[in-house]
Amino acid sequence: MKRPDLEPVLDPAVVEFIHGGVAVGVATRDDDLRPEFARAWGPEVSADGRSLTLCVVAPEGSQMRANLERNGALAVGFSPPTIARAVQVKGVASQVGEPEAGDLERVERHVRLFVAEAERIGAPPELSRRMFVGTGLVAVGFSIDEVFDQTPGPTAGRRL
Amino acid sequence: MSELSVPLESIGPCLQGVLPSWLVTCSAEGVPNATIISIVRYVDSERVALTRQFFNKTRANLDANPQAQVIVVDAGSGDQFVLDLRYLHTESEGAIFDEVEANLAAVASQMGMSDVFRLRGVDIHRVLRCDPFGETGAPVEEPRVERDALPLLDEFIRRLALCVDYADAARVGLETLDDLFGFAYSILLTADERGDRLFAVSTNGYVPSGVGAEVPVGVGLVGVAAERRRVVCVPNLARSRAMNAAVQHSLRRSGAEPSAVEIELPGLERVQSAAAVPLLARGELTGVLYLESERQGEFSPGKERLLRILGGQLAAALAVLEADRGESDPDESAPATAPQGEPLAVAYYQADDSVFVDDAYVVKGVPGRILWKLVREHAADGRISFSNRELRLDENLGLPAGNNNLEARLLVLRKRLAALECGITLDRVDRGRLSLTVSAPLTLVEVPTTGPMRAAHEQPAGG
């Protein structure tokens, strides 16, 4: 039984970071514990800082889609193109469904921010735009069970 | 033979660590983990090496469950590939470790972060699957650098062989790297006699040239390449700098103090990638060839071998010409006319053998001692002609036995004088013969030292 008062709450600085031009990577796994990666876009932290929604590239028939639907265990990493900082949140998907208009607006905004951020370190926009695949997006929602600071250095892996 | 649908050899640009790679693992309890790593390196047709630095959770997961997946990106095209991996073992010594470690150490030193970027090991993974990811199509085979390089190498060696002296080879070598291989920005450094420093003797593409700049062995890309005697390629310097800021930040939060390192060398403002190639002759380090580019990924693993060959040729040519002792005697004829006009003030500081002309710093160390000798003798009797041989034999100059560096030292001195336009020039007029030109009379001031170098300047008793 989960106790909401014991679950992590993302502080505003972390939320701002997650809502910026960061690259978002999702890890799931199958029944044999084989990890699977997908990119995700348009992350949004809930107002209370306890849950997250984002659009994962998980087309029908893909391993990512199967993993999300079968067990839902996921880790989501956030890191700017400079990889100067990184945060990871973990949880179990409670919603997997078609993205709505609001989700897709957030995806578009996120792609713009990401491309701009990548351009700051010299990555041409046409190159970083290739990271985005707009088909097969699935809206995934989950409550945050764990948060980690993965910024390179001695504190990497620290629980926030 | 590899069974992979996309051979690793065909995605070489992805395996350089130019762009960050996502690595995902899963714990024995079924909790996935997503992290970013900087280096995924090609080992052979079936294996890759991943750096093990800070990734504590990844490490625990791999020990419990060796399955992993990594996404690699070609910085040039944006092509992405997914690799399913099985963790085999971790190496903390050996050829792969040494290569990755030298690279990482070089970047860390460049950024002044040597204490943080310690490579714990390289994780060797078997690649079970390699496929295009996202909207990437099947890869186009990378151009075969090595085959295409043969005619260029042939021409490089031919041009070097035509060089008549050390200075010529130092110049032609760098210009030819630009002409033939497109390495437009290069610095040739020579190891000094004590083996703990390198000094720039020739550069190409930089203004000012930076000749005379020194780099301690072990510091920065150049210093680490010298210390480890390994080619160091850094495909993405811009990201390294950003990474440095991150680590500094992380260090401060954990209560540690960042270390301070500075390097004085000419450098591209918009440098994106760089390589440092150790030069070896007779089994010893003789210098470093340093290359910079404004393009990401310019110095790829495919070019490492080429750089080693180029460095080897350049080192051999320079060693032969430095050792060329076919030296003539100085021309004894006095100058036709003594220079007139406002005197040039030449000051020599014993403390570090530095020489200033009209308050402008010229050079220090061995080249400083050489210059001081030349101007003193010129001031005494108007002499303008000198020979390499007399410099080699002059014990007051303190050149070490065998002094294999005299040509390099003279080259630095000549270039510094020419660049300063200070009224004094030194020209090579023949094999082993030098001509000093002064535009005005000289007034000399020797500033003694009371510091640790004092004994070196005292006249021997009973002299």
In short:
Chain A has 160 residues and is an alpha+beta fold. Chain A is 24% helix and 36% strand. The radius of gyration of chain A is 15 Å and the shape is globular.
Features:
heterodimer; A: 160 residues; alpha+beta; Pnp Oxidase, Chain A; B: 463 residues; Beta-Lactamase; Arc Repressor Mutant, subunit A; 3 domains; six-stranded antiparallel sheet
CATH class of chain A: Mainly Beta
Largest sheet report of chain B: 7 strands, antiparallel
Most extensive interface between two protein chains, with residue counts: A-B, 47 and 54 residues
Q: State the end-to-end CA separation of chain A.
A: 22 Å
What's the total helix number of chain A?
4
Chain-averaged pLDDT of chain B: 82
Oligomer: heterodimer
CATH architecture of chain A: Roll
Query: What's the overall geometry of chain A?
Result: globular
Low-confidence spans of chain A: pLDDT under 50, at least 5 residues?
A: none
CATH architect. name of the largest domain in chain B: 2-Layer Sandwich
What overall form of chain B do the CA principal axes indicate?
elongated
Largest sheet of chain A: 6 strands, antiparallel, barrel
CATH class of the largest domain in chain B: Alpha Beta
Query: What's the CATH H-level superfamily name of the largest domain in chain B?
Result: GAF domain
Strand content of chain A: 35-45%
N-to-C order of helices and strands of chain A: HEEEHEEHHEE
Using the coordinates shown, work out and report the CATH topology of chain A. Answer: Pnp Oxidase, Chain A
Instruction: Determine the CATH topology of the largest domain in chain B.
Output: Beta-Lactamase
Q: Structural class from helices and strands of chain A?
A: alpha+beta
Query: Considering DSSP H and I runs of 4 or more, what fraction of the residues of chain A is helical?
Result: 10-25%
